Amino acid sequence: MPKVVLAGGTGFVGQAFARRFGELGAEVKVISRQASHIPWENRRAIVEALEGADLLINLAGRSVNCRYTPENRRLILDSRTETTRLLGESVLACSRPPTLWINSSTATIYRHAEDRPMTEEGGEIGTGFSVDVAKAWEAAFFAFDLPATRQVALRIAIVLDDGGVMAPLRNLVRFGLGGAQGSGRQQFSWIHMEDLFRIVRFLQEHPELHGVFNASAPHPVTNRELMARLRRAMGVPVGLPAPRWLLELGARLIRTETELVLKSRWVLPERLKRAGFSFRYDTLEKALNEIVERN
Prior knowledge:
Elements: E1 3-7, H1 12-23, E2 27-31, H2 43-50, E3 55-58, H3 70-92, E4 100-106, H4 129-142, E5 150-156, E6 158-161, E7 163-164, H5 166-174, E8 187-188, E9 190-192, H6 193-205, E10 211-215, E11 221-222, H7 223-234, H8 244-253, H9 259-262, H10 270-275, H11 284-294
Parallel strand pairs: 1-2, 1-3, 3-4, 4-5, 5-10, 6-9
Antiparallel strand pairs: 6-7, 8-11
Helix pairs in contact: 2-3, 3-4, 5-7, 7-11
């Protein structure tokens, strides 16, 4: 029975992965601050879980859906870098370390791009707090020299599935507010949950692959196109737009940041496509229709 360890495995992506690996017959171990799982404070239990594991996936990290106060900035950064360092030290303590370690990263590492798409080799790293977090996260991951463990950092785009970002977007459409946000020109890079899981399986099956990979669908859309296609999938004919000033006001009221909707993330999965990965949900229309019809 293959053994999979999910660090931060009780979040949106982690729960979906735990269910899918369980359906494949894998033994799934979860490291989490939630009760009934392996606690982060128990280093011995973490090492025991990692011993002989086929796969370690680190998804740990405090949500960025908050105001970027000094305290929240510290928590966002530390929740990513410290857990990554702890896992690296635990892998080093194993006599039979995991075969593959996939560490989550983010497509937000690239600059705001409305002029051209960002790839692993041709993309430009951006500036600002979110980018600094992404860079520190990857630096903590690749700081470890692990000759027996292959390492992959996944720069994950916005994940679409039942829940996550889809919940507030569908509510906006449902209540007639599903128009363009801001200029509507900002690019929206995304990935269907099923394809994200299939990417992990693909990386498992190709031992020659390592390093950084963009985990994003091959056909990003603008924010305006995103909202129009979601309205179409939900059968809602019109939606009022939200200008930037209104988004700024709303973000303050609900204690979040407008970067989450206004930054233009234009990311392409160049390395995955070159390696032969085939997306099941390559267009947004396919992804949205599947999610809406499932619910």
